[in-house]
């Protein structure tokens, strides 16, 4: 079923003794706003977790295949679209292939890949399947309070080669570093465009799966590096009877407040240190839907 409403949402998650999104250009340190000290998690990181959840729960089968994944050769995926449409791409003239059938190939890709019809994709490579504007978009997540990165020394007893084993003696071990955030509550914002959803085929069922992924994606993304990450609150603003939306998004987001229970006390180490409210009402359930 096509979407008939716009949705905007606020998403809270937290991390305890972990690194929610390391920066490879900074030795994998947790991402931090250099001016304010607030922690950051990229939109790409959050989308990756949604993709992983959907791929896991739907077994990577159409119409829930995942386009952007590790070691995926994208042109091969594009070739599948043309093959399914019965189009021969063997005549290579040195230009991008696809010709006047790009729109058909784009439609096929949207039908078969969940993340394309959800987040969009640029598929204008040599095997051209066009571009898709995704109806679901996320911002960077930013921690409610500034965070401090802790550095830990770690050792490895095992070695990789015989030469390393010969050189190792006594308490000599391979040394390493690990970075964690003691605790951080993060807030991200998201948007669902009904007109764009109807262009890509993103349906009500796809939207329900997306909400499910936001709640469950950390449960199947565990690692020692990420510590304890948990989805905490999801506040959805549903624009009743409005394809384009009935109110400005910032007016809606300003209705959601986060406060420390005991401001000025010890640093927060748990979600219980915060009060998340909507229009002054404290939210205790994970998911809250508000018609606007």
Could you explain how this protein is built, in words?
With 292 residues, the protein is α+β, with helices and mostly antiparallel strands. The chain has one domain (7-147, 179-291). The protein is 25% helix and 32% strand. It contains 8 helices and 15 strands. Strands 1, 4, 7, 8, 9, 10, 11 and 15 form an 8-stranded mixed sheet that branches. The chain has a 3-stranded antiparallel sheet with strand order 12-13-14, with no helix packed on it. The chain has a two-stranded antiparallel sheet with strand order 2-3. A hairpin with a 2-residue loop joins β13 (274-278) and β14.
The number of helical segments is 8
- Structural class, by secondary structure, is alpha+beta
Q: Overall 3D geometry?
A: flat
Q: Classify the helix fraction into a percent range.
A: 25-40%
Number of domains: 1
Care to count the β-strands? 15
List strands and helices in order, with pairings.
Blueprint: E1 7-18, E2 22-23, E3 29-30, E4 38-41, H1 43-57, H2 74-84, H3 102-112, H4 114-119, E5 120-124, E6 128-133, E7 136-138, E8 141-146, E9 150-156, H5 162-167, E10 174-192, H6 194-200, H7 204-216, E11 228-238, H8 249-253, E12 256-260, E13 274-278, E14 281-282, E15 287-291
Parallel strand pairs: 11-15
Antiparallel strand pairs: 1-10, 1-11, 2-3, 4-8, 5-6, 7-10, 8-10, 9-10, 12-13, 13-14
What's the short story on this structure?
The protein has 292 residues and is α+β, with helices and mostly antiparallel strands. The protein contains eight helices and 15 strands. A hairpin with a 3-residue loop joins strand 5 (120-124) and strand 6 (128-133).
